[in-house]
Every structure is written in C-alpha cells, then in structure tokens.
Amino acid sequence: MTQRPSRPLPSGRLTRLSHFGRLAVGVAGGLVGEGVRRWQRGESWDWQQQALSAGNLQRISDRLSEMRGAAMKLGQLLSMDAGHLLPPELASILAGLRNHAHTLPLSQLEPLLSAAWGADWPSSFQRFSYQPIAAASIGQVHEAWTVSGRHLAIKVQYPGVVESIDHDLDQVATLLRWSRLLPPDLDIAPLLAEAKAQLQQEADYLYEAQQLEQMQRQLASDPDLILPQLEASFSGAKILAMDFIGGEPIDQLASASQAERHFWVEKLFRLLLRELFEWQHIQTDPNFANYLLDLKHQRLGLIDFGAARTYPTALCQAYRALLQALIAADAPALLAAAQQIGYCRPGMTAAQEACLVQLLQCVGRIFDGPYDFAGSDLVAELQQLAMRLSFELGYWYQPPLEALLLHRKLAGLFLLAQRMQVTIDVRAVVAPYLDPATPSQPTSSQPTLS
After folding, report:
1. CA-based Rg of the chain, rounded to a whole angstrom?
2. Which residues are registered as beta bridge partners of 153?
3. Other CB atoms within 10 A of residue 33 CB
4. Sign of the CA dihedral 177, 183, 184, 185?
5. pTM
6. What family is this (predicted)?
7. What are the phi and psi torsion angles at 293 (to 5°)?
8. Using one digit for the tens of pLDDT, what is the confidence trace for 25-41?
9. pLDDT tens, position by position, 230-279
10. Cα atoms found within 13 Å of the Cα of residue 86, Cβ hemisphere only
11. Cys-Cys crosslink for 338: which of 63, 98, 150, 343, Cβ 3.0 to 4.6 Å?
12. Which of 92-106, 230-244, 335-349 has the highest mean pLDDT?
C-alpha cells in the first residue's frame, strides 16, 4: 500500500486564516517572480499566465490538500462543474485534488478516537491500522479487526471540518478571484452554495448511516452487489464503522475479459436507472473507488453513501421525458423537458435555445445503436458546444443541484465505459425505463468465466 503524506490539520479559524494568508502571499510572490522572468525574456505582462505558473499551481494544490475540508471540495467542484470554462492548467491541478489528501498524524487521530470510544478503546480491537487506506476532503478511513474478529472499515472525520465550511469556501473563492485564476465572467456563487450544502450533508455521518441502510433495502434482492453492514457500537456523528469490503476499484477492471468488462459497466448504468426511476434515490458520487470489484467471487461492493439523496418525483419524470424525446429525436419535446429539468431560464434567445437543443441532441447519438464508448469524441463535442453557449452566445446558467449531481454521476459512468473500451446498446438498456408504469427492471446475466 502506498503511504499517504501525513500533516497536522490546521484547526481553528485564525490558524486556517493564516494558512490562506500565506497561500495568498505565496501566489502574489509567484506572480511577481514570473512577471520578472517574462520581462527578462522580453515578453509582455500577462496576469493570468503568470498566475498559472507551475510554481503557483503547485502552491495552491499543496495548500488545499493540506487544509482538506471545504478548501479541497471547492477545487473538486470547480474542476467538475466548470472545468470546460477554466484554463486547462488550473482544471488539471484542481481535478487532482479528488484523490490527493494529507492524512492526520497520530497526535491528532488518537484524541478523536478516545473522545468517541473512551481512553481504553484499543482493548476493543485485535488490530487497528493507524495508516489510513483512504483519505479525502471530509475524513480518512482505517482498517481494523475487533476482538470478535469482525473486519471493519472505520471512517474518521477530520476535526473542525463542519465549523470551517463556510469560512474556508469564502476564502478560497476570494483567492481564486483575486489572483484572476478564474475567468472574470464565471459566476461561482452557485458553486459556493452547492459546495457548502454538500459538505454539510457529507459531514453528517448519521445521515450517511441512514442512506447505507436504505440502499441495503433497495438492493437486497440483487446477488451481484454487496453493501457493508453498519457497526453501530463504533459509529456516531464523527466516526462511521462498517464491514470492510474487499476488492479493487472498478476502473482497474481493464485486465478482465471483454464479457466481464461489458457486464459490470452495463450493470452500473442499469443501477443508476433503477435509482433514478424506480427508487428516486441516488448515490451521486462518481468516484470509482466507491465501486470495489471482486472478480474471484463475481460481485461488486458499494461503499460511501454520504452523497446519496432523494430526488423529487417531478424531476425524475422530467428526465424520463428527456430520454423519450432524445430517442424520438423530437426537438420541441426535448426543449420542453429541458425546461422542466431547469436547464433553461426565462428570456433565452432563439440562438441560445437552438444551441442547447443541439447540445442535447449530441448526447442523443448514444441511442442510435450499439455505442462504442472507446471511439467516442462526445466529450470534446459537448465541451465545444458548452463553450459556444457560454461565451459566444452569452448563456451561463446553473441547473438545479440535483441535475448537476446527476450529470456528474453520468459523466463518471461515461468515463468508465471509455476506459473499459466497451460497446453497449444504450437504447436497449434504457428502454424498460421509458414506460412510467413499468415496475422493477431486469438485469443482465453474469458473464461465463473462462
């Protein structure tokens, strides 16, 4: 296992503010230094290019990953929700924050465990691994074995995360605006509000425990999927304990057979459709590490439900109407469904509406027959159309939070299908869900192992 870097988490508003202050000073120094180097080379002053120097970008990445919490989360959201509007260098460094976090040193970890379990907590375990097996913006995960032999994954929340959310996000946004790393026309206020709401929800481990139990009820009849059982005696508001689920993240499936790759990718597409149309309850986090594949036993483990949420019935019906319009190539119905979902605001020009419909019709090509994800250039086309809509036609509008989260999940599945080089008859997969009267949906057959 690769050992993650360990650094104390800055806690307290003044301490975290001083970290932001040092980051701002470092970025300012980098701007001046890069400006001097450009002058020595006979080049003109370019504020954004100087801000995007390798040194400045590394400073931002290192400091945000060290601070964790809200600081990391905004970087992640910007890279996913507005990535096509950001300079490529900044989008890349922010995207890297998704899987890059410093871990807590033992001096900060042990007091958290003692506060939750009592000073004698080590006597409850045969073994507790202090080196985390995962670390992200909200907390880190440890592997442990109880005295009874139960194998657990224990998620420990970073200290002070909840209290620092609003302040940290506002500080990061101010820094990115001041340094001109963000395009001047990009309104990140909706992203700030989204990041604050998401972090508050994901930091509520009691909520996550409820979502886990709901997903267990929904998937109880599916033998291909396994979810961890909660260990309530070690769980609370700041610590969440559950069965350890083994396996490799599903994006490591490349070494499996073509049949296995096709089966599991299609399985996840079908799972999302069931979540949206059957249960109206979706685990919205697209992180591949949340899907752990055990090829030996031919099952897929699902973990991490802090981002699960219930979707309004009207929105689910609007997405069904959108799918029907895409398959029927019905432009007026497509625009009407887009309006229901919230893609459109009042007063759009005819040119803006036409570009939006063109963008949606571009997505609709995946329903024309068996779709070769590996050979697809859909993402590049969508980025070009989105930039035309935003810059050339002057339309920048934030859809509802639920729509953004669903888009992120779909984008993750699309990327997985590309990476696994599968060809899927997407129209056949979604067909059973187009009729609102259709109950529980069928699943594809397990591949025959060689």
Report:
1. 23
2. 143, 242
3. 14
4. negative
5. 0.77
6. Belongs to the protein kinase superfamily. ADCK protein kinase family.
7. -100, 125
8. 444 444 434 443 444 45
9. 999 999 999 999 999 988 888 888 778 899 999 999 999 999 999 999 99
10. 24
11. 343
12. 230-244
Which pLDDT tens digit goes with each residue over 109-156?
999 999 999 999 999 999 999 999 987 778 889 999 999 999 999 999
Cβ atoms within 10 Å, residue 66: 18
Cα–Cα distance, 252 to 274 (Å, whole number): 25
Ranking 203-207, 343-347, 442-446 by mean pLDDT, the lowest is 442-446
For β-strands 225-226 and 239-243, DSSP reports them as unpaired
How many CB atoms sit inside 10 A of residue 420's CB?
21
Phi-psi category of 376—alpha, beta or left, where left has phi over 0 and alpha has psi -120 to 50?
A: beta
362, 379, 444 from 327: Cα distances, Å? 12, 19, 22
Q: What is the DSSP letter of 433?
A: G
> Scanning the structure block, which residue is given the tokens 């939006």?
356
What are the catalytic residues? 285
* Opening angle at CA 6, ends 24 and 134, nearest 5: 105
Q: Distance (Å, rounded) from C-alpha 30 to C-alpha 51?
A: 7
Element (H, E) at 301: strand 299-302
How far is the C-alpha of 247 from the C-alpha of 292, rounded, in Å?
A: 5
